[in-house]
Amino acid sequence: MAKIGQPAKTFSSQGENGSSQDERLSSTSEGKRPYTLFQGHSGPVYSAAFSPFGDFLLSSSSDSTIRLWTTKLNANLVCYKGHNYWDVQFSPVSHYFASASHDRTARIWSMDKIQPLRIMAGHLADVDCVQWHVNCNYIATGSSDKTVRLWDVQTGECIRMFIGHRSMVLSLAMSPDGRYMASGDEDGTIMMWDLSTGSCVSPLAGHNSCVWSLAFSCEGALLASGSADCTVKLWDVASSTKALKMDDTKAGSTNRLRLLKALPTKSTPVYNLRFSRRNLLFASGALSL
C-alpha cells in the first residue's frame, strides 16, 4: 500500500517560475541555490537513493520503472522496468540495489543488467520499504501485511519473519554492527528486533502518527525516528540495550529504549532522516500549508 498521507515526490519538468527546464539551474545572482532537475519519469516518484559515493542516483516511480542517473553528467543511464515501486535502496557496495513494490515482491538488481537477479515473494500485501543489511548478504522488507521479513540475497529465500506490528510497516533501519533492526509502522510504533533470535528487544511508543523514517547514528548509539506527527525523536540505543541484556532472564520484561529528546518541526511532517559521517542529523519533509 502506498504511504498514506505522504505527497508524491516527483522530479518535475518545471522550474520554480513555471518554465520548462531539465538542465542544471544555477541562478546565484538572484540568491537561489543551484540544483538539478532530472526529467524522465511519467508518474509520481516515491523514492530516491544515492549510491554510497554519491556518483549515482536511483529513482523509483509509479510508472513501473526505476531510473539510474549519473550525478556527474546529470543524465539518465538506465531504465529498469518491472513492477510499481514504492522504495529503492542501494546496497552498501553500490553495484547492487533492491526495490519494493505493491505487487507483494521485492527484487534485487545489478546496475549492469536490466533484469532482476532475485525476486523475493512471500508477503501477503504491498511491500512498502526495503533495507540492506550491512554485510550485503541480507535484505529486510516491511509490508502492509504488518510483518517484516529477512531475506537471503544469494538464494532469495525468506529466513526469518518478524511479527508484532499492528499496522503496515513503513520504515526500516539496520544498526551499524548488524545486530539489530528497527521498524516503524503506520500507528507510530517502533520495534527494535534482535536479528539473531528474531525477538523484539523493545517496543517504542512515542509517536502518534506514521513513522516514515528511521536512522541509526554512525556508531549505533542513537536511533532517530521521523514521523507524520511533525517530530523527530532520538532514542538511546547503547545504554538501553545493555540494560535489556541484563534483564533477559526476567519473564515479561517491559523495558523500553530511553527517549533522549523530542524535536518538533511545528508544521512539517518528517519523511526522511540521515546521519552524516560526523553524526549530524539531517531531516527532510514537506511543509504543511
Describe the structure.
The protein is mainly beta and 289 residues long. Among the domains are: 45-126 and 143-157; 164-245 and 256-274, Neuraminidase (6 Propeller). Helix content is 3%, strand content 47%. It contains 1 helix and 24 strands. The chain has one helix spanning 238-246, and strands spanning 24-25, 35-36, 45-50, 56-61, 65-70, 75-81, 85-90, 96-101, 105-110, 118-121, 127-132, 138-143, 147-152, 158-163, 169-174, 180-185, 189-194, 200-205, 211-216, 222-227, 231-236, 258-264, 270-275, 281-285. The strands form 7 sheets. It has a 4-stranded antiparallel beta sheet with strand order 3-4-5-6, with no helix packed on it. A hairpin with a 5-residue loop joins strand 23 (270-275) and strand 24. The model is unreliable at 1-29 and 251-255 (pLDDT under 50).
